[in-house]
């Protein structure tokens, strides 16, 4: 796997290095584990100021692809509860790890522009771009860094090391995690998700099927829009997908469905107006 040109030559670099994690501890990313501080420096917490209910805090995850642009899931912004593509209501928190503690590594940046995919509907084209009101301050040893994007359609398999991250709930009616959690998830052929979800969502090329079929781990409410990242041979991480939907919270027999990043590269490039944004 080779990344695209990124805003910095060290896209996808992590303090986590290539050390293999141990899994088993219970976490809000269902049956995941607490991440190492700084391990996922492109992870973003998207906070929402609801016009009726006030400040809701963390609502969805996001992922930093340059110092000015984020990706998230369109359903975080337009869903059955509300349709709020109003930039002034959203704040991106980058450099976050423990949401309950001010660690001085965070940057809270208002969102300036939201671009929903024009054909988003019922978890089809579940992708949105957010432009930040000011560039993120990047530094070599910073806990804030952009992830690498794939250059073309890539195939993934169960032998790839792919990890989902987020602050989501431990159950559909549970509480959000304080510290960022991670879970290793295997990637499957889309036919598996098509069999499980085809009666409600038409699984297409823009989807990526991943997750344990035994219900041992998976994503949950609050993880949406966050990254599914896969390790490259050179030690960097590539953005394979963003969390879209699933059975609820790691229901046995049901993997999760992610928005496949390689499929949406042309859309991303077309919407980011300045060619240098990803250079």
UniProtKB/TrEMBL annotation:
<dbReference type="InterPro" id="IPR009003">
    <property type="entry name" value="Peptidase_S1_PA"/>
</dbReference>
<dbReference type="GO" id="GO:0004252">
    <property type="term" value="F:serine-type endopeptidase activity"/>
</dbReference>
<keyword id="KW-1015">Disulfide bond</keyword>
<protein>
    <recommendedName>
        <fullName>Peptidase S1 domain-containing protein</fullName>
    </recommendedName>
</protein>
<keyword id="KW-0645">Protease</keyword>
<dbReference type="InterPro" id="IPR001254">
    <property type="entry name" value="Trypsin_dom"/>
</dbReference>
<feature type="domain" description="Peptidase S1">
    <location>
        <begin position="29"/>
        <end position="273"/>
    </location>
</feature>
<dbReference type="InterPro" id="IPR033116">
    <property type="entry name" value="TRYPSIN_SER"/>
</dbReference>
<dbReference type="InterPro" id="IPR043504">
    <property type="entry name" value="Peptidase_S1_PA_chymotrypsin"/>
</dbReference>
<dbReference type="InterPro" id="IPR001314">
    <property type="entry name" value="Peptidase_S1A"/>
</dbReference>
<keyword id="KW-0720">Serine protease</keyword>
<keyword id="KW-0378">Hydrolase</keyword>
<dbReference type="GO" id="GO:0006508">
    <property type="term" value="P:proteolysis"/>
</dbReference>
<dbReference type="InterPro" id="IPR018114">
    <property type="entry name" value="TRYPSIN_HIS"/>
</dbReference>
<dbReference type="Pfam" id="PF00089">
    <property type="entry name" value="Trypsin"/>
</dbReference>
């Amino acid at each position: 796997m080779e990344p695209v040109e990124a805003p910095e030559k060290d896209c996808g670099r992590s303090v986590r290095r290539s050390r293999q994690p141990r899994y088993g501890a219970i976490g809000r990313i269902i049956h995941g584990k607490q991440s190492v501080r700084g391990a996922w420096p492109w992870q973003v917490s998207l906070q929402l100021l609801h016009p009726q209910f006030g400040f809701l805090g963390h609502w969805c995850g996001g992922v930093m692809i340059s110092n000015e642009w984020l990706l998230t899931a369109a359903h975080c912004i337009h869903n059955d509860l509300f349709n709020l593509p109003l930039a002034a209501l959203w704040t991106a928190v980058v450099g976050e790890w423990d949401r309950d503690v001010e660690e001085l590594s965070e940057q809270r940046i208002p969102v300036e522009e939201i671009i929903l995919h024009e054909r988003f509907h019922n978890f089809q084209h579940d992708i949105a771009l957010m432009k930040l009101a000011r560039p993120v301050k990047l530094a070599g040893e910073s806990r804030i860094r952009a992830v690498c994007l794939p250059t073309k359609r890539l195939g993934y398999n169960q032998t790839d090391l792919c990890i989902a991250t987020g602050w989501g709930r431990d159950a559909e009616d549970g509480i959000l995690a304080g510290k960022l959690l991670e879970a290793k998830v295997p990637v499957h052929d889309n036919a598996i998700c098509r069999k499980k979800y085809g009666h409600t969502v038409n699984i297409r090329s823009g989807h990526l099927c991943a997750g344990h079929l035994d219900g041992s781990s998976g994503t949950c409410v609050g993880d949406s829009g966050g990254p599914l990242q896969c390790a490259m041979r050179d030690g960097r991480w590539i953005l394979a997908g963003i969390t879209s939907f699933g059975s609820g919270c790691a229901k046995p027999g049901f993997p999760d469905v992610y928005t496949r990043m390689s499929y949406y590269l042309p859309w991303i490039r077309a919407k980011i107006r300045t060619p240098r944004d990803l250079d």
